[in-house]
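Review form for a predicted model. The reviewer records the input and the model, then writes brief findings.
Reviewer: anonymous (R2)
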Amino acid sequence: MKVYVPRDAAARALGADAVARAIEAMAAAQGHEITLIRNGSRGMIWLEPLVEIEIDGVRHGFGPMTAADVTGLFDERHPKALGPVEDIPFLANQTRLTFQRVGVIDPLDLPDYEAHGGLAGLRRALGMTGAEIVAEVTESGLRGRGGAGFPTGIKWNTVLGAEAAQKYIVCNADEGDSGTFADRMIMEGDPFCLIEGMAIAGIGVGATRGYVYLRSEYPDAIAVMNKAVRIARETGLLGASLLGSDKAFDMEIRVGAGAYVCGEETSLLNSLEGKRGVVRAKPPLPALEGFLGRPTVVNNVISLATVPVIFEKGAAHYRDFGLGRSRGTIPLQIAGNVKFGGLYETAFGTTLGEIINGIGGGTASGQPVKAVQVGGPLGAYFGPEQFDTPFGYEEFDGAGGLIGHAGITVFDETADMSRLARFAMEFCAVESCGKCTPCRIGAVRGVETIDRIVAGDATAVPLLEDLCETMKDGSLCALGGFTPYPVLSALRLAPEDFTLAREAAE
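Model under review:
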């Protein structure tokens, strides 16, 4: 009997390890022979820890489980039985491409990975030229999933055309946005997918060395990725001869020290080189002068983890999903005050209202939604009147927002938008690398100006708006440049909160 209990950090935080131990103890006491598999999370966080038992080839779910709930798990009926996991609507209605194996396989079992379609993309890529590989990625329409939405194929083509004795692939795994966890879930639930994607990128652009820059706050992901790299190296998935070919690619895991700004690619590169994590002026672009001054592809975890499925199923298959210039699927991370929080992979084009009310089930509190922040702490707030906005890069930009890393945080009507606006400026002030004046000074002045407005100085509102425009236009990177999005959208969405705060202060 196969029993699955997630090793994902979210599931472990909710007691998955204790549940796994209780299952093993009960099975031993009752004489049941089981194989306990520690898989990744399916992404339905409200059901974690989610235990799955394979019955006649179908995995049945039980959850959310506690160690005390394990009693009677192998009986015919259990009060927390959910039926076949694949039939749960939240999971059944998804289009899982990047996350097709997450929650399904043992993350560190390479044969299991291969049995579920892994390495098919790499084997196909090994028979292609670098130019053909880059053309395939370009044709797929894949864009950076880390926030900028820059076409991946264009970036790869720039590195391919650059002349250098050494090129690099750098994976940005510094997932620091609030309400985001897709990178972590991939690394903990399907690490070989990321390794395969980086290897394809390497042979595509002519890079033989790669690095994953992983945030220190993810100890589980760090441990899994390090083990996966060792296994890949021992089995020939990494090294001087990829899968027995004449192509070479190797990689290692580097751990950051917790600076939010190192999620910006040039700050990340400085940190990777052992320098202070500050933003570099562009040009030169990292694609031409990146890590150690060499041509470097810097892509997000989800971007690189999507590459294998593009080569497995073909660029046309992937491009058929989505809308406009937003092609393929996007892993939505639904968090905050929401009934069904978790990861939901679907094609671009679903409206914000469908995501919040249909997929997420509305607020957990049962109160009306007041605002939804999309894109992490630098994302704009959207009110219910904007819920018809389709989830796409250009569509959100046209509505005054940004997709970012596709983190979605829900707030009900009790949220105070003046406090949320102040938090955005304070966050920028704390996390600024200090390189440019608009960000370093502007965020501090922003906190002071919001405090003036709340204290009753209505004349400070135009000053705040002018300050935000200066930060948007003058900052070197997105930290200072995007902080105005939540501030101005909060002011637009709920000006009464700023007035009420003034009245409360009085």
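Findings: The first helix runs from residue 9 to 13.
Further findings: The chain has a mean pLDDT of 95.
Recommendation: see findings above.
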